[in-house]
Amino acid sequence: MTTTETTTLPGIRPADQARVVARVLLPAVAEGLVQRRSSVMALAERLRADRAAVDTLRELRERYGRGPLGLRVAGRSLALLLDPDDLARVLSESPEPFTPAVLEKRRALEQFQPHGSLISVGPERRERRRVNELALETERPLHDIAPAAVRRIREEALTVRKRAEATGLTWDVFAAGWWRSVRRLVLGDAARADRRITDSLAGLRTAANWSLLRPTRRRTRADFLRRLRRYAAQAGDDTLVGRLHGLDVAPGTDPVGQVPHWLFAFDAAGAATLRTLALLTGHPGRLAKSRAEFAGADLSRPHPLRYLRACVLDAVRLWPTTPLLLRESTLDTVWRGALVPAGTAFVAHTPYFHRVEVAGPYGDEFEPEIWLDGRAERDPALAPFSAGPARCPGENLVLLTASTWLAALLEDHSYRLDSPVRPRVGEPIPATLNHFPLRFTAQAGSALV
Ligand code: HEM
């Protein structure tokens, strides 16, 4: 098709464009695309900002049709996706002609992972993606390191559980144990107490939130990468970084350079784990099903824990940790007769897709069963771990880690959510659940269920 046979994308009225910026794009950026900001998340929860974003896009779809809609923001051409089939197309045709290495993402992630696969292109990206898939064992529900990982996770989770019985379970109590377990399974037991490495990464991620506006913190980054490489050199093969040893890779691939993304992304997995616990405390039937799944099992060994994994998947569906999926077209593309020039940024707001565009009545409900009975698989609107060739290669590992943590916390213990926002059965699940102020009463036995 030539340009003379095509139109441009349907645009929207300036007032609607301003609403998309104010209600959809800015809140997602302000909450922190790379490192969540607790103060802004608290505000977003109070103002019901995510609900406003989802409603704005629902209304645009009713008025303008299925899109994509053309927008111009800060000198950049955007194509706003509103239709699940369009989302599926963009994700399945990554990295060419829809590259994940979008300029803003590149500038942000370069702060701490200059050689990460997500911001690489061409043969380098292919090789780095391959390294990730090999080390993370993308297709396997139970990674080769699962026995050691489960042992480490369980030790840390039982310490957290004990502390929680005395003080309550808060994000801070949980996160301290979570990060100890992450450092151990990624870098090895020697890194267990090395908060400096994960704290300096958090600092780099905060800078990354500012994307184009902040210069790279070269000294902090160099220090972080030096420490990382030291652990990598010593790590055993029962750690993730140890799985990189001996891989046959093309020059310039930098396998260890993939690890910052792993550490960074485990933060989202921690938030998803605690949110899943919040969902389960408000859904007693599903909590009982989760408990039944591991009743009588020896939890010091790896188990598939399919139901708990489905619960985590549904928590990430309800509160996506990647609220904006971004791609940039490397070629001109045609959408329903409209020509979209190369260099356009395609934007998908995942909370909108996961709540409004879903193929069943589960948009605002906690419905883990969809991940077990084929409904989620058939639903192109669902992409909590993205989809297609740039889909998250760590998904199975996240589900192993999160389900192992949840089983350890729940075994012979019960929790009551005391913080004000409580997702409960029979009520629409709130569009925002700020994980930072979550607070649970914890006790041995099942009295609090
Ligand atoms: C709840 C936890 C997580 C969620 C929801 C998640 C989700 C995602 C999503 C949506 C993407 C695509 C991003 C984009 O297209 O811009 C992605 C990419 C990626 N994720 Fe995850 N992720 C999680 C945790 C992890 C963990 C723990 C690891 C590693 C141990 C990991 C490794 C990666 C890598 C390497 C990529 C880049 C893939 C590529 O370049 O093709 N993720 N993840």
Automatic annotation (TrEMBL):
Gene3D superfamilies: Cytochrome P450. It comes from the Bacteria. It holds the Pfam family p450. Coiled coil: none annotated. SUPFAM superfamilies: Cytochrome P450. InterPro entries: Cyt_P450, Cyt_P450_sf, Cytochrome_P450_monoxygenase. Belongs to the cytochrome P450 family. PANTHER family: CYTOCHROME P450, CYTOCHROME P450 12A4, MITOCHONDRIAL-RELATED. This is Cytochrome P450.
